[in-house]
Amino acid sequence: MPPRRVITGRSQEPRRRYAEELRSLRTVRGESLRELAKVVGWDASLFGKLESGATLGSPEVAEALDQHYGTPGLLLALWELAVADPAHFKERYRRYMLLESEAVSLWQYSVSIMPGLLQTDAYAYEVLALGGFKGKTLDQQVEARTGRRALLDGEDAPPFRALLAEAVLRTPLRDVGAWREQLEYLLEASERRNITLQVLPQSSGLHGLVSTDVMFLRLLDGGTVAYTEHAHRGELIEENASVEQLQRAYDATRDQALNPAQSRKFILRMLEEVPCEPST
User: Fold this and answer.
1) Do 222 and 184 fall within a single domain?
2) What residue stretches are annotated with the HTH cro/C1-type domain (predicted)?
């Protein structure tokens, strides 16, 4: 069957189609970006980025524009197609990294892997090597990951709460010395004024985040976004209702965890269980 002929002249690539539709609707209205911003309520620079395809924005913006232009459901549907496009996943992760660097507070739940912001160099090397990275690429990935630790340093560092499932502490590195170093680093981090560590014992049972790694970022504008990871796929979540649902699950899970003092004692016990390296 021959390929379907494009009649409208509009792009068939979801992200570009969304941008083109936004620009076309505004042009037909005869509005400037500034005029649109005054009516709809977001900053003009956001609408400029939407129309250039630099960002997709949130579903709330798409819904507000549908209402403004009298196109019920059209723009939201185009937004959903653009978000589901595989090419969008890498862009979402880049956006997440930018938001992480700008966050005023962060809180995370980890199911089985040490949070990236708390990984030592040795831990990052082993995890990323298992992910298939090699040679120079592996070195670059480790440098990028461990460089994120600087976010938690300094007087203006944002508050960070890490909730660790017991499995994180029961899954050691292959190198005994490197694993000891990682646990010692956790204890050191827990003493910082801006870092709170809590351990969720396996005995606490099932909970709402039992299979979900999640990081919440509180932003300067007061909003919150979430980044979830399942197996080999991550997703940036900006829709208010979805973020709030995850937050409720996080709060309930945190209530089952050991308090910070008890958690430090738990990590100390794990450290004591690490066998001593044989003397040379």
Assistant:
1) yes
2) 22-75
Report the chain's terminal Cα–Cα distance, integer Å: 72
83 CB neighbour count, 10 Å cutoff: 22
Q: Give the pLDDT confidence of 217-241 residue by residue, as tens digits.
A: 999 888 999 999 875 677 889 888 9
Considering the domain boundaries, does residue 176 fall inside one? yes
Range of the domain at 178: 88-115+155-273
Residue pair 182/189 in contact by the 8 Å Cβ criterion: no
pTM to 2 decimals?
Answer: 0.67
Average pLDDT over residues 21-29: 93
Q: Where are the alpha helices (DSSP H) in 30-175?
A: 33-40, 44-52, 59-69, 74-84, 87-102, 121-130, 135-147, 166-169
> CA 117, 198, 231: angle at the middle one, nearest 5?
55
Phi, psi of 120 (to 5 degrees): -75, 170
Give the gyration radius of the chain's Cα atoms. Answer: 23
Instruction: State the total domains in the chain.
Output: 2
